[in-house]
Amino acid sequence: MNIGEVAERAGLPAKTIRYYEDIKLIRPARDGNGYRAFSETDLHKLTFLSRARALGFTIENCRALLALWEDQSRASSDVKRIAGEHLDEIDRKIADLQSMRDTLGELVRDCAGDGRPDCPILTGLGKPRS
Amino acid sequence: MNIGEVAERAGLPAKTIRYYEDIKLIRPARDGNGYRAFSETDLHKLTFLSRARALGFTIENCRALLALWEDQSRASSDVKRIAGEHLDEIDRKIADLQSMRDTLGELVRDCAGDGRPDCPILTGLGKPRS
DNA sequence: GGTTGACCTTCCAGTAGCTGGAAGCACCAT
DNA sequence: ATGGTGCTTCCAGCTACTGGAAGGTCAACC
Question: What is A1-74's CATH topology?
């Protein structure tokens, strides 16, 4: 398989796949002409990466997960720990965004949004953090 | 005011303040010794930036907001539009994270997390995006 | 007057995870 | 032979800082 096909099937840009090879997440073989030759296993790994990245795992976590995926004698507890920590991270991010949303939502709500210069958003932003 | 004091009072690292000068968000005066000399207005701007960044506005949005803040003849509708768009952006991010959370939460829930290698998280990540 | 230590300066490099673009082969169809 | 598409490498840039080195300045203490 050439990079175009594998990109299509894994749902990743070719550029990203080359980058993943660069940072050694995958090590595809090469054809005589210098083209990358992807195996079914490579495709599977890339699909895995595509999914994991879409779920917000960092590249380094992806690397760890991929290593576990390849290790037939892994303990599922190791996987669960990484995923669980990431879940907590996501929860923290959601909470942060919620709190931003609440604060900003208030400011926007209180702003007349007309032609006059008075604006509670600007006033609110000028005050030290509460 | 030197950078240390203003950093303390605005709640920003000195490094960040130097960076903000670099990208021309602020233009503090200089003392004879080469030290930056911050005015009360500079402090106010930095407090503004600190708050706006904490609410997730991009630097470029901060620049626009700061310009409006300085423009006595602004229309509050301009401010409200920027803030409203950012609010939508935050909502989109929250929705994305929620959907990640849901998917990942299911996988984690279904994983035994013991010493055995079988792991629905790894299996789930290997499948194409649903 | 000398010395310490805190504070300030600039400049360079690195972070995460790609993405865009240039220059140049390879392959296939006409 | 020619045109178009796809592949290759390499270099630069994105966001918003952050760390660190090398060196100047200031105030205090002995």
Answer: Multidrug-efflux Transporter Regulator; Chain: A; Domain 2 (1.10.1660)
